[in-house]
Design goal:
Elements (H helix, E strand, L loop, with lengths): L1 H17 L10 H4 L2 E18 L2 E12 L1 H7 L6 E4 L4 E4 L4 E7 L2 E6 L2 E9 L3 E4 L6 E5 L4 E14 L13 H9 L2
Antiparallel strand pairs: 1-2, 1-3, 1-10, 3-4, 4-5, 5-6, 6-7, 7-8, 8-10, 9-10
Length: 182
């Protein structure tokens, strides 16, 4: 009987010790974001509509995408980059500072123009910031319609950023507004 109890206790101990974790634990988002990231694509959800007496009439509901080649042209040959440091601060290509934090699937970025938040996803090579800057709403008084946009930015991690942290945009607003140009 002692042998059976001893065997059960030994087996229980081995099982509890072996299930303590993986040999290759997944890095936390806070660890993955550390480094330098270059914009690689954008996706803009755009809606153009009129509104009369509280009734919304959608004229266009579409998605506009820019890949890396199109963005190089849009940004005059130099893609914006951001460096995220491990202390919750960061720097853009222009040398302007920003603060960042992650919580669950939410990001928070703050620079001299404001605070930006939304949902993000990240792996070792890609960072996606959804709805960076929130809704951009503009009224076209000539055509008498509203234009609403939400922009997702995708960044690729770059391993050798030397020389790239020298030009970008003074703040996140300027960075985003350049992407709104068509």
């Amino acid at each position: 009987m002692k042998k059976i109890i001893y065997s059960i206790l030994t087996l229980g101990f081995l099982v509890s010790c072996s299930s303590g974790g993986s040999d290759n634990p997944q890095p936390l988002s806070e660890q993955l974001i550390i480094g330098t990231w270059e914009i690689s694509e954008t996706s803009s959800d755009i809606e153009i509509y009129t509104e009369e007496n509280g009734v919304r009439n959608t004229l266009l509901d579409s998605n506009i995408n820019f890949d890396r080649v199109q963005l190089i042209e849009l940004y005059d040959g130099v893609l914006p980059i951001c460096r995220f440091d491990d202390n919750g601060s960061g720097t853009n290509s222009e040398g302007e500072s920003f603060l960042w934090s992650l919580s669950g699937d939410q990001y928070l970025l703050e620079d001299c123009t404001g605070v930006y938040s939304g949902i993000f996803s990240i792996d070792s090579e890609r960072l996606i910031l959804n709805d960076l800057g929130g809704e951009y709403l503009e009224y076209d008084s000539i055509n008498q319609w509203w234009e609403s946009q939400y922009i997702d930015f995708t960044f690729n991690k770059i391993n050798n950023p030397s020389g790239k942290l020298n030009r970008s945009y003074k703040n996140i607003d300027e960075f985003i507004s350049k992407s709104l140009e068509r």
